[in-house]
Amino acid sequence: MAILTKAGRVAIAESLSLRNLHLAWGTGDGAWIVPPSEDVDATHLMAEVGRRLATEIAYVTPSPSGEIVLPTGNFTRSTTPTNNLYVRTAFDFPDAYSSVIREIGVFVGTQVVTGLPVGQDYFTPGQVTSQGRLLHLENLGPIFRSPAIRESFEVVITF
User: Fold this and answer.
1) Is the pLDDT of residue 87 over 90?
2) For a Cys-Cys bond, which of 7, 48, 58, 120 suits 26, CB 3.0-4.6 Å?
């Protein structure tokens, strides 16, 4: 039986770290009281409201005393490539204000319409011509957006 080696998994993480990654967020299903399990076959968010270019992409390793603390464990940044890719995205105050966020996803290969201002890094669905490929999907309990709060999301994708 053939396997994907650890070195191969590191190579995948290296390739993705060189690409633009976007974190998209959406309203999901308004009937969700408890978020449902994620669908491994999903290719898009249920109800996307926007996406932002990742603020930070780094290699990490699991570490009980790591400075990156997530529900899945603690991680430490690594100066050498690993098979764990850390993606942090900080949204801006007005992004999707008044929305109720129930889902997030990390995408690679997003393409946007031409003619947008240089440096724009938040895009509404109407500004996206190709969403790219969904790498990570997470259903959440409701987050009520306020223009007084700057939301930030951190995920570790393990290959």
Assistant:
1) yes
2) 48
pLDDT one-digit tens code per residue, 52-71: 999 999 999 999 999 999 99
- Nearest of 9, 20, 2 to residue 131 by alpha carbon: 20
* DSSP state letter for 47: S
Residue with tokens 């570790």: 156
Percent of the chain with pLDDT over 90: 97
d(CA 47, CA 44): 9
Query: HSE (CB half, 13 Å, CA atoms) of 131?
Result: 22
CA pair distance 152, 66, nearest whole angstrom: 19
Name the pTM for this structure.
0.95
Show the beta-strand stretches assigned E in the chain: 21-26, 48-53, 56-62, 68-70, 73-78, 84-90, 100-108, 111-112, 122-123, 128-130, 133-144, 152-158
Residue 42's SS3 state is coil
The full set of domain ranges for the chain reads 21-158
